[in-house]
Amino acid sequence: MAKDYKCAICGKCRLKHKRPIINPVLRKYASKITGRSIVENEVICSKCRSTFKRSIKASTCTTQTSTSFEETDESDDDYVNDPNSCKNDILSPKNIHLKICSTHSSHKYCIVCKRKSSNRVKLCVVPLEARTQAFIHKGIFIDSKARCCSSHLQNHNLTQESLFQIQAKYDRSYFNRTDIVTMLQNVRATLLKQTTRLNFDKTSSLSNEDYYNMTGVSKEQFTDIASRLSSLRNSSVRSVEACLGILLVKLRTGLPNTILSTLFCLTKNQIQRSIHSAKNAMMADYVPNHLGFQHIDHETFVNSHNTPLANNLFSNNENSAILVLDGTYIYIQKSSNYKFQRVCYSMHKHRPLVKMMVIVASDGYILNVLGPYRSDGKNNDASITKHILRKNEEDIKHWVQENDVAIVDRGFRDAIEFLAKHGLHVEMPTYLKKGQSQHTTEEANLSRLVTKVRWVVDSANGRIKHWRLLDKVLHNHYITSIGDFVRIVCAICNDCRPPLSKHNPDGIQLAQQMLEKSRQNNNIKTMVEEENLMRKRTVYQTVNSFDLTDFPVLTLDDLRELTMGIYQIKQAPLYTREHLAEESGLYELHLVRDKPNLIRCKIQSRHTNSAVHTLWIEYNPDTVTGWYCTCKAGARTVGCCAHIASVIWFLGYQRYSLIKSGPSGGFLSSVMDASDMPLTDSDSDSDTNENVEE
Fold this sequence. Notes:
The chain folds into 5 domains: about 15-80, no CATH class; about 95-195, no CATH class; about 205-290, no CATH class; about 300-505, Ribonuclease H-like superfamily/Ribonuclease H (Nucleotidyltransferase, domain 5, 2-Layer Sandwich), CATH 3.30.420; about 520-660, no CATH class. It is elongated and about 130 Å long. By secondary structure, the protein is an alpha+beta fold. The strands form 7 sheets. Strands 11, 12, 13, 14, 15 and 16 form a 6-stranded mixed sheet that branches. The chain has 25 helices and 21 strands.
C-alpha cells in the first residue's frame, strides 16, 4: 500500500506536487504556521510553498534570509532541469545585467512556436544541449526553466527549423554567477567535442557540404535515412546517427578503421562492430525499399523510368520495360586461399576481382544488383546472365515480361539467343568481323542507336565508384560484405540522386530524327571510294583554316544537333589542341580542287601513335551537309565521330568565340623522355678527355 503523503501545513494529500521541507527558513515558516516542530521527511504542497515565496518577496528589504531561500529554491529547480549542476551549490541572485538576448522563461508557452501549454500540447524543459546550441548559433540565452514542444527537439538538440525559428524576447538579461559559469563550460565542452571528432549526433556540428563530402548524402537525407533504421538502437558507445555515419564515411572515403577510430574517438573494434551493425540495419530497413525486383512493380517501372527517347528507339509497346545490363568490377586483395585466388583472378584485367551484374533503367535508375560472382573464364557477362535467369534470382522471371527490351554490350553476344527464348528483345552494338577494319554505315548507325541509351549503365557504375571503398582494392576481410556494400550504395543512389537521363519530351523528336538518319546512306563515303580520294594527292591543296571564310558559323545547339550527343563536343577541344601546330598555331586543312566545298583533314588517334584518321567534310554557307572518317565508326550518318566533330567545332565555333582551347604540351613538359639524348656515349667520353687534356 502506497504511503499517504500530506502537506505539513494544509494537510491535503497531493502526491504529484509534494516537495520535501529541506530549507531551514521554510522549516521555520512551517513550524510557525502549524504551531509544532517539523519532523524529517515531511513535505509541502506547491500551493503552500507559493504562499511562502510571496510572503518572502513582499518583505520591504531583501534580507539575508530571503536571499538564502531564493538561492536554495533556484538551486533545487536548476538541479532538476540541469543534471550537470550540483544540488548542494547555492546560487547567487540574478543581479548581473548583460547585453545578451534571451527568451522568456514562462512555463506556459513554448519558446519556439509560442504555443500555450494544455492537455493536448505538452511542453518539456529545454535540455542543456539545446540551450547551448541556441547560444552558440543564435546568440540567444535560454533560461533553465524555459519550456518548448517536444517536436522541436531531436536527440536533446533543437532541429534546424526550430533553431532558425527561435527569436529573442529581451535585448538585455539578468544572470547570476552560476548561469555564466555553466554557459561558458558548456560552450567550451561543445567546441572541444566538435574539434576532436566527427559528430553526427548534432546536425549543427557539420555543414551540409561536410555531410556530402564525408557521407555522399546531404544533411537532410542523412537524417531521413537514420530515421528509417528501426532495427538499429542507441548504445552506450554510439548513437544511431553515429553508427550510420561511420558506415557511410567508410564507404565514401575508404579510410582504414584505424583512421576512423581517431576521427570518431572510438577503438578499432568499436568501429568494426558499428560498421557491421549499420550494414545489417541498412539491408533490413532501407535497401529493400529502394532496390530489387520486389521494391517496384513492372508497371510503375515502365511509367516512371522509361525515357521517351528509349521508348521510341527500341520499343513499339508502351508496356515494355527497357533494361540496360552490364557487369562492374570490385577489385580485391590477392588471397592466401589458392583455390579462391584462382577463381577470382581475371585474365582480362590481370588482377583479382569479383563481378556484380547491374541492371538499370534507361534513365539510370538502378533496378537491381546481383552478385558477387567469380571472375574466371567461366563467369563472363553472358554466363552470369544465364545463371541469373536459370536460377531465377530474386524471382526475376516473374518480374520480367514478354517483349521487354534488354540493351547490352558485345560481352553478352553468347547470351542473345538465351535471352530471346525468355521473351526479351535484345539490342547490342555490332562488332567488327574477322578481316573487317570499319563498320558499314548501317552497322555504325545501329550501334549509335544502342550507345545513345546504353551510356547510362556506365554512368551508374561510375556513381557506384564515387564511394571510394568500392573503387579501391577491397580488403579480404570485407569479401563477404561486398554484395551488401554495393546494394547499400545503389539504394542511396536511387533515393538521393537525380536521374542520369532526364525524361525530356523532346526525346521523341530526337528519336525520330535518329531513326530517319539511320536509314540514309553515307554519300560522302561513296564519293571518296568511287573517286579514289583516299589515295590521290594532287587533287588537294593546303589551306589555312583562317582563310576558309565560307564555312558556316555554328552555335553549340547546332553542334549538338549535328553530333546528336555531347560526348563528341567534349572531345573536340582535346583533339583540336593536338592538331594545332605548336610553332605557328595554325590549323592545316586540305581543300579538294574540283570541289571547293569539300575539305580533308588528318587527325592523330588519341590511343596510338601509329593510327592517323583521315576525314572529309562537305558543307555549304548555311550548314554541314555530310562527312566521312576512316575510323571504325566514321561511316555513320546518325551523328558523327569525335574526329569529325573536332574539325567542325574549330571551324564553325572556336574561331568565332572567345573560348580558348588551352596551352598544348603542359603535361608533356613535366614528364621526361628517356629517348631524348643529345649526346652519345662516345661523344661524352671524347668531351671528357678533351677537358682533362686542357
